[in-house]
Design goal:
This protein is mainly α and about 300 residues long. The protein has a domain of about 140 residues. The protein has 11 helices and 3 strands. The chain has a 3-stranded antiparallel β-sheet with strand order 1-3-2, with no helix packed on it. Strand 2 and strand 3 form a beta hairpin. The longest helix is centred in the middle third of the chain and has 41 residues. The two termini are about 30 Å apart. The N terminus is likely disordered.
Length: about 300
Amino acid sequence: MMSFPSKDTNSQTLFKWPWRRESPLSAQLLIDIPPEIELSDYRRLPSSGSESPSRLLDGEGVKEEPIPDLDIFFERLYEYFCTKGLRCIITKWIIEILNVLFTVCCIGFFFLYVDWNAIGHLKCGVEALESGEKPCDLMAAIKHNPLVPFTFPKMVTVGSMIILVTYGLINFLKFFVQLKSTLNARDFYYNSLKITDLEIQTISWPRIIEKVVLLQKSKKLCVVRDLSEHDIIMRIMRKENYLIGMVNKGIISFPIRPWLPGAGPTVKSHVHDRRNHVILPKALEWTLNWCIFQSMFDR
């Protein structure tokens, strides 16, 4: 039985270059042995008029429930397992929206409405009594027209608030766009695997994979071959494995100085047979994923 940590944890542990002599990446991945990355057999699903797919179990009828894209399907199953059910997904979404609203309100209040110069000149308590002045009134430090005059710092503040509001709206719409796929994953857990949201809180991922493999014997999720635990794991980790292969081959290594921030371990480059330093910031990782891997593994 095979198991692995969450993808977020993998990306943080594999591609975060600490300033230490040894790292998990240099100790386990940066070797001159070509990585063995499994390529699954991509073929069209057999049509209704074609012959029955090969490798069916003897003595069983063909009860096919083919899934168009198994990679996306298993990724969503794993994400649903990591988030521990629909209730946790909705709770996380509500907290993220409230967090964005709270941040926007704090920025607007403390940087636009509060007059910090007036607060610095207020005299309160004993100091006000000794000077014979009126005790401090904090409401006097609140601006009634916060955008007048509209200076450059206020423009930066308003711009940051607009960016945060846009980010919150994107997350708000993203939740409803992904809600259908989330409900489909929940229905698969409930109806096919017989796992409720309460059970998913304590069940292990290897046990879920075992149930999926047993389900493959009665309902053909994949009609071109019989799924195994290793097939499911390799499909979920397909993009990460290609990225690890690029690191091993020195494709994303550069001839930089070792003291530069972000410089990782050295790997052998194919250019002039020299050893360069691996550097993989989050921006480059996102660009590779968006521009290459998303197109490689689309429908």
